[in-house]
């Protein structure tokens, strides 16, 4: 189930939110598994949760826009994401921790006739949270986790032209 909201609160203030609830489990699922000694065994995973799918995924964003003059608009944006822990294997024997990330950006959008110039920058993962960014499901070596990006900064300049 997914719910999303995008609301213009005031002409210069915009709020976005999204929530996804996932409750996936195997009805019936038997598989051969291989251990570290390369021995195989048949295991029954029926009823277990599907790995690598968070039960709750929550997102909020707030942006403020300020028109300085016709064709020149500045903006400030902030976003928050919370993801609940996920199982890393079909056996549901290990699970990642929940994590929350805060991001922010600022920019200037300028329109000159058919040309558009966007200058922006920001920071992702403001509090430098260590989190699992990728799961290697059912890793035979037990190396399920790959770290997500640490705090990082970005800047950009985009030049566009609108053909009419």
Notes on the structure:
It is a single chain. The mean pLDDT is 93. It is elongated, with a radius of gyration of 22 Å. A hairpin with a 2-residue loop joins strand 5 and strand 6. The two termini are 40 Å apart. Helices cover 0% and strands 58% of the residues.
What share of the residues lie within helices?
A: under 10%
Distance between the termini: 40 Å
How many helices in DSSP terms? 0
Q: How do the strands line up in the largest sheet?
A: 1-2-5-6-7-8-11
The outline comes out as elongated
Largest sheet report:
7 strands, antiparallel
Percentage of residues in DSSP E strands = over 45%
List the helices and strands and how they pair.
Blueprint: E1 2-10, E2 13-21, E3 30-34, E4 40-44, E5 56-69, E6 72-83, E7 99-112, E8 115-124, E9 132-135, E10 145-147, E11 152-161
Antiparallel strand pairs: 1-2, 2-5, 3-4, 5-6, 6-7, 7-8, 8-11, 9-10
Question: What's the quick description here?
Answer:
By secondary structure, this protein is an all-beta fold. 0% of the residues lie in helices and 58% in strands.
Throw out a few tags for this protein.
seven-stranded antiparallel β-sheet; single chain
């Amino acid at each position: 189930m997914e719910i999303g909201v995008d609301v213009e609160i005031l002409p210069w203030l915009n709020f976005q939110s999204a929530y996804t609830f996932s409750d996936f489990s195997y009805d019936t699922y038997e598989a051969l598994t291989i251990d570290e000694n390369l021995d195989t065994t048949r295991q029954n995973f029926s009823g277990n949760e599907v790995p690598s799918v968070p039960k709750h995924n929550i997102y909020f964003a707030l942006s403020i826009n300020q028109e300085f003059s016709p064709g020149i608009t500045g903006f400030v944006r902030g976003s928050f994401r919370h993801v609940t822990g996920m199982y890393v294997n079909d056996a549901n024997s290990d699970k990642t921790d929940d994590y929350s990330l805060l991001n922010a950006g600022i920019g200037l959008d300028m329109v000159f006739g058919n040309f558009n110039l966007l200058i922006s920058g920001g920071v992702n993962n403001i509090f430098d949270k260590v989190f699992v960014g990728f799961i290697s499901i059912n890793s035979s070596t037990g190396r399920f986790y790959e770290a997500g990006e640490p705090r990082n900064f970005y800047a950009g300049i985009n030049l566009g032209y609108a053909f009419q």
